[in-house]
Amino acid sequence: MLGLDDFVTEVMAIPGALDALIVDHNSGMPVASGGLGPGLEHSAAALSETLRAAMEGLATSAGGTVRIADMIVVSDRGYHLFRPLETRFDGPLVVYVHLDLERSNLALARHRLESIAARLDA
Fold this sequence. Notes:
Elements: H1 4-12, E1 17-24, E2 30-34, H2 44-62, E3 71-75, E4 78-85, E5 93-99, H3 106-118
Antiparallel strand pairs: 1-2, 1-5, 3-4, 4-5
């Protein structure tokens, strides 16, 4: 079982990982972080809101509740991977990982993140 700090350490060991951030999905507050490019912790609320907006939009278009396993955004600055985490905390958590476009393998990163998240003891 992994704690949050060990979780972030393992996420940062994914090939091509630049930044990792765990965010309380309800409050938008950062819970744990690694790498941290400039301003990443300050954008935690916006990152959480990005996932919330996608979930609400999909639920509206699908006509019901939608559970997101992963959300991927590809930009000129890299891959941005969001994954809601199943935890024992009072509120839901989301992990955000920023991956280098050139040095990462998106499929491998998703697989590794899923494996690491399964061992999280939050």
